[in-house]
Fold this sequence. Notes:
There is one protein chain. The chain is an all-alpha fold. Helix content is 48%, strand content 3%. It has a two-stranded parallel sheet. It is elongated. The relative contact order is 0.18. The model has no long low-confidence stretch (mean pLDDT 84).
Amino acid sequence: MLGALPRDGTRLDHRFARALDLARVLAHVTEDSYLPPMREVGWPTFPGSRREGEVERGPKLSESRFRRLLQSEPGEDLVAQFTRLVALMGGTANVADLSDAFRWWDHANDRAKQRWAFDYFNAGAAARPTNDSPEDSEE
């Protein structure tokens, strides 16, 4: 009825298989969240912005696990990595963001992975001005 299954019954369409894999991941989500996943488990502040002597909490998701997630291939590997991520977040995840990233994970432009890396390292915090000095407002 959805048109995702082949008419001759020989092979699943890749989009249909991806939708089934996404359903398996989302079955582990118990509550929707407004936070993007990598803001939830990534660095609370940009790692390079801390001052000497400051102690900061690290990310919930280790950098080695994050690298493994970025290298995941569609199929069982990607399902396992996203399921682990949902478990790390305690079952609470931003369903829309998680779904979009999962669907576009292996797209040629890598935008999903780039956005997640940006969020994981809290790079947006590094890009924001930290004070309202006159030099910042002279434009």
